[in-house]
Queue: 4 jobs
Job 1
Amino acid sequence: MSIVDWPEGERPREKLLARGAAALSDAELLAIFLRTGMKGKSAVDLARELLTKYGSLTRVFAASQQDFCKVPGMGPAKFVQLQAVLEMSRRALQEEMQCGDTLNSPRVVRDYLKLLLAGRSQEVFLVLFLDTQHRVIASEELFHGTLSQTSVYPREVVKRALAHNAAAVILAHNHPSGITEPSSADQLLTSALKQALALVDVTVLDHFVVAAGQTLSFAERGLI
């Protein structure tokens, strides 16, 4: 059955207008993005198939162009639209962080990091560089691959902090395994970076681990 044949209160667009975006399921939100279905399948059907294939919205967003375009009903145009939506979301959150104290906006920081890091197939180490009022100056992915104290070089982090004239930093990396619990290597790395940055009067405010759409804060755990 086509979506236009559904009761009006159950159609994703009408439901969003009447009850707000938060009332929609992941499949319904994704269906609005897809706009149309294909022969024998509604946009909601296609959305459900995408979620079944990838397991979550986060993994749909992280899909490569080649893999995404192999899904029946998808293609380069849909992939481009999806990437544009994601980038607009990232930029909106970054603008919000640049305007206010990140310590007073923990949700914004978490949402931004999840958009950047969740669903990535390899480990990525990212640093948010902050000014004296804890507003974001810049966000940089500095290292990729298996992360350890030997693969994330403190001198490079210090170098970038000085280049941005940063007063503080927030560290973040992802766990492709889906487990947010920090490893002993994560804790050793954090300690090494904290000591190195302290030598140039840069404070490490927090270190986030992002996995499976969740975030863990070292500061909240008392590990900073």
Note: The first strand starts at residue 124 and ends at 130.
Job 2
Amino acid sequence: MVNEIYEETKQSMEKSLEALKKDYSTLRTGKVHTSILDNITVDYYGTPTALNQVATVLAPDGTTINITPWEKNLVGAIEKAIQEANIGVNPNNNGESVQLFFPPMTQDQRKESVKGAKSMTDNAKVAIRNVRKHSNDKVKKLLKDKEITEDESKKAQDEIQKITDGYVVKSDDMFKAKDAEIMKI
């Protein structure tokens, strides 16, 4: 019973770290990634559709993203969607594709990106602590229902705290790595 709670706790905390990785992918680092466009949707025949579902999105080098729609009539809609997304760069439309040329990041932009990463990390830690609280509540319920003893409850809560501490350290490590990646010129 208690072991199931440990497994659920680990799985939920792992999901928090996965969400953090996904959040990090939307941040701009020194090298441009196509994932910066992941949250952009295009009006595709009246349906908001993810950009990567209507076009080929490639980053041929560290400062350029090339977007080639599968249907040429979408070039204007893609250009408009990127302008509305306000990702810090103006799209260039050549009639067949849209290019995004990102200037090298300034020190201030890098610091802003690090702040964003720190905020995302803090949110992940809050999620991890919420999982801990939920797991501890389950243990307390088992104690209340007399399915485990007082000692087993204390031991289980200590183990849940150890698991939590491990995941908080993992999220801090992820932040340090992201910080280094952003600040690297």
Note: Strands lie at 41-44, 47-50, 55-61, 64-69, 91-93, 98-101.
Job 3
Amino acid sequence: MTSLSRNLLAEFIGTALLLATVVGSGVMGVALSNGNDGIALLANAAATAGALYVLIVILGPISGAHFNPAVTLVMRMRGEIDNRAAVAYVLVQVVAAILGVMLAHAMFEQALIQPGTHARSGIAQWLSESVATFGLVLTILLGVRHRPAAVPALVASYIFAAYWFTASTSFANPAVTLARSLTQSFAGIRPEDVIAFVLAQLVGMLAAHGVARVLLGPRGGTHGDAVANR
């Protein structure tokens, strides 16, 4: 197996398990919380952060543990990966994210594809996604430079916090956003809201890239090491 093939397999496994966690914990959280949205959100955030930490630790040394087209794109912009690898990463992330949602549905004996019904639109939601993605990407770029061994904990901690301080509950990931338009669970989003979310995420990514260039320089010494998102 080639190096790129191993990287893509790691990205596939990580992204699929991440989405299975996001959606599955949302289903379970609602089922166990008796309609208490706060408890359901806490369960969803804790499960996602925990899974992120594990997946980054075990898969980061193989692929960099992007699991997120926004992360892959910023790494391409910084020269950490080439065009071929970046395109392959993004395609695998999108496919794996969709299959991860379907896996979660299957585990709870639900219809595999469920067009989302959860409305997530408006300036506050879009601003939240820009902020969430900005913080995630900046955490990765600065963390890999200053505390590379701490990146798994940094990313997991940031995502856990961002679930609570953003109005959108911090999708911060275009592949995750698209895949979550295929679930009617607590974690879902309407298909018609996806494009605006993704655009907002890309704005946040570009802003983080610009700030990192100022703080770290053009390359910043990231070396493409363990990075990820939800």
Note: Helices lie at 3-33, 37-63, 69-77, 83-107, 123-146, 151-165, 174-180, 194-216.
Job 4
Amino acid sequence: MPVVFEGYRPGALAGVLGLHMDYYAREWGFGLAFETKLAAELAQFLGRFDPGRDLFLTAWRDGALAGSISMDVSGGGIEGAHLRWFVVADSARGAGLGKQLLARAIHHADSVSAGPVWLTTFAGLDAARALYESFGFRLQAESDADQWQGGVREQSFLRPGPSPASPAGFEP
């Protein structure tokens, strides 16, 4: 069954939250502090969402949420656009959906001339890091700060302004 890419639809916020918790609770032991932070920040983003600048992208397969990514251009700050809430369902991992979502998000940022794109993550998410780096992101900082309260080492990545080409094989 093909993947359908959309923006917001009723239940998407809860679905994105659920995908995050399915993975991060199981694999990293994240709990209430992470879930409430994620829920509050995602709800705040959607409440001020600017469709001409920001991106909230969901991917659906057989009516089920398979993944999501967001680009917060309006609230990214002086560092540029903020890549956030990137997650792929367990059932969709390894099939290239993450690459498709990230490519669409980067294309969006470049098309609205967002300049640099930044993200925060944490050490140990090796597949995600490799994907970020394939799109031109570079590690900028690493610290013991742990905004997610999961006992992880926080990392900040930056992709300087639009790149001349996206990874091979992507067409928005």
Note: DSSP finds four helices and seven strands in the chain.
